[in-house]
Amino acid sequence: MQLLTAFLSGGSIIDLDGTFFFQFAIFWVAFLVLRKLVFHPIIAVIEAREEAIDGARQKARDLEKDSADREKEFATKMRSVRLGAGEERDKLRDEAKHLEDSILDKVRSETEKQMAEAHAKMASEAAKVRSEISAQTPILAKQIAAKLLQREVQ
Predict the structure, then answer these.
(1) Quick check: helix, strand or coil at residue 135?
(2) Any residues with CB less than 8 A from the CB of 2 and at least 6 apart, and which?
(3) What secondary structure does DSSP assign to 61-120, as a single string?
(4) CA dihedral 65, 67, 71, 77 (to 10 degrees)
């Protein structure tokens, strides 16, 4: 009610007397004490947290970059190893082919030599058997004729 009368009377709602300056001084003392004891430590904790987050983000970016670089290096080394392995495989395949060809040539020449020897032996045996048969042919003919005629033939 007093507020309504003061408002209607056209007077000031706030009286500026000595208590205003006393309250103003208490406000600033409280502000400075709270600033020193509460606001600065909280702000320091918030800033430290932001710096830690920014540091972690930067470290993560650095690790990602390092990982990408190592992956590229690994891919490059793998390509060179694969190329080297392919060349080595081709070289070993060529060496195996040459070895196979030399072994086949050796076996082929030995086989041909053995076949030639066998043919020569067969030819000499055949000639020997023919000469023996030729030598025994008259005797056999006499024996066959004697048996057929049932008498001795000269």
Answers:
(1) helix
(2) none
(3) HHHHHHHHHHHHHHHHHHHHHHHHHHHHHHHHHHHHHHHHHHHHHHHHHHHHHHHHHHHH
(4) 100
Say whether 137 sits in a helix, a strand or coil: helix
The set of residues, in sequence order, having a beta carbon less than 8 Å from that of 137 and lying 6+ positions away, is none
What's the whole-model pTM score? 0.43
Please check whether residue 13 is in contact with residue 6, taking contact to mean a CB–CB distance below 8 angstroms. yes
- Beta carbons within 10 angstroms of residue 131's beta carbon: 10
b/e for 133-143, b at 16 or more Cβ within 10 A? eeeeeeeeeee
Give residue-wise pLDDT tens across range 19-47.
Answer: 888 999 999 999 999 999 999 999 999 99
State the DSSP string of 33-65. HHIIIIIHHHHHHHHHHHHHHHHHHHHHHHHHH
Tell me phi and psi for residue 15, to 5 degrees.
Answer: -95, 125
